[in-house]
Amino acid sequence: MYNRDSYDKAMATLKERRSDATARAAAFHEKMRNELPRVREIEQLMAQSSAKVVQAILNHGNVEEQVERIKAENLALQVELSMLLQDHGAATSDFEPQYTCKICEDTGFANGKPCVCLEQLMREFSCMELSELSAMKPTSFEDLSLEYYSSKADSRTGVAPRAQMRQVIAFCRAYAENFDGHDDSLLLRGPTGVGKTHLSLAIAGVVLSHGYSVVYGPIQQMLHRIEREHFGRSDGNTEDVLIGCDLLILDDVGTEFSSSFYTSALYNIINGRLMAEKPTIISTNLNQKELTERYGEQIASRITGLFTPLVCCGKDVRQQKLKQSLE
Ligand SMILES: [Zn+2]
Questions:
Q1: What is the reported pTM?
Q2: Above 90 in pLDDT, residue 126?
Q3: d(C-alpha 185, C-alpha 281), whole Å
Q4: How many A from CA of 12 to the centre of ligand 1?
Q5: Counting Cβ atoms within 10 Å, is residue 68 exposed (0-12), middle (13-18) or buried (19+)?
Q6: How many angstroms does the Cα of residue 28 sit away from the middle of ligand 1?
Q7: Centre of ligand 1 from the C-alpha of residue 292, in Å
Q8: Beta-carbon neighbours within 5 Å of ion ligand 1
Q9: Rounded to an integer, what distance in angstroms lies between the CA atom of residue 28 and that of residue 5?
Q10: How many Cα neighbours within 13 Å face the side chain of 276?
Q11: Are residues 133 and 217 in contact, defined by beta-carbon separation less than 8 angstroms?
């Protein structure tokens, strides 16, 4: 399912994890040996026990009795070492590498099969690669300022944009913080420039920081990639990655070029993710009627019926900022 590039990057990450774990354990061992000279002595004594057994055999006499004595000495040394380390807040297991993945010890394979950690890393790298193709970057909620939203109620809707956006931002923040991969899908709706993209990228920032795989980008770019791959004009597995990531953010739905191929690709993505119970965030300028006209009942009913709608409102923030900078 994943390409060669994400496999190579994943294996390189695992190799780094392994060598980090080994180096950390060795450094800690050395530190303890230097700080507690008794640790070194105990280890030296324990290392001599097999030589002592050999000696006992060579000396004849009562071998069994001597072996028992050496075993008891060895056990006493082990107990002493572990108590000594315990007194210093450590354990003998700290001398062993502490691998990130206990299943495969960061080798990427367990029982001859790719480990879950390898698959997770490949998924993350594939998602990252797709998201990096868009010019979009994850943002933060802190950068969202309510000063650009009027506190006066709109004469037509009776809603004050600032109050409305405060609620939407609070909802999105809680959504991002509590994200667990099986959350509701969101439909961010509203005119151009009122913060839909910013909100979805702020969610992406938090969800990514919690270790989930996220793909975000303009819908036009993603569908174009799928089309190129479908007709053999480029390699890749964009559709699989879009369906398989923990969170998919499709920006500017409705602005892409209109074609039956795009519509069926979009249907596959939305439906595939709903079936897998994976959340999708869609931002769009289109209302329900326009969504139906554009994509047909099959897609529109899934989006409007199964996604949680969030309405963004106000005046174009970018234009306001531009105006301010010119004043
Ligand atoms: Zn593993």
A1: 0.77
A2: no
A3: 6
A4: 13
A5: exposed
A6: 24
A7: 45
A8: 101, 103-104, 115, 117
A9: 35
A10: 18
A11: yes
**How far apart are the CA of 241 and the centre of ligand 1, in A?**
21
Give residue 91 CA to ligand 1 midpoint distance, Å. 24
Angle between helices 49-58 and 37-47 (to 10 degrees): 30
Instruction: Tell me the average pLDDT across 188-211.
Output: 93
**Helix ranges, the chain (H):** 4-35, 37-47, 49-58, 63-87, 116-133, 161-177, 196-209, 219-230, 238-244, 260-275, 288-295, 297-306, 317-326
Cα→Cα distances 118→114, 157, 295, Å: 6, 51, 37
Cα 113 to ligand 1 centroid, rounded to whole Å = 10
Residues 6+ apart with CB under 8 A from 252: 197, 218, 219, 220, 283, 284, 285
78-107 per-residue burial string, b: 16 or more CB within 10 A, e: under 16: eeebeebbeeeebeeeebebebebeebbbb
CA of 22 to the centre of ligand 1 (A): 16
- Quick one: which of 316, 317, 253, 313 has its CA closest to 281? 253
pLDDT at 1 over 60: no
140-168: average pLDDT: 88
Q: How far is CA 77 from the centre of its chain?
A: 45
Strands 247-253 and 280-284: parallel
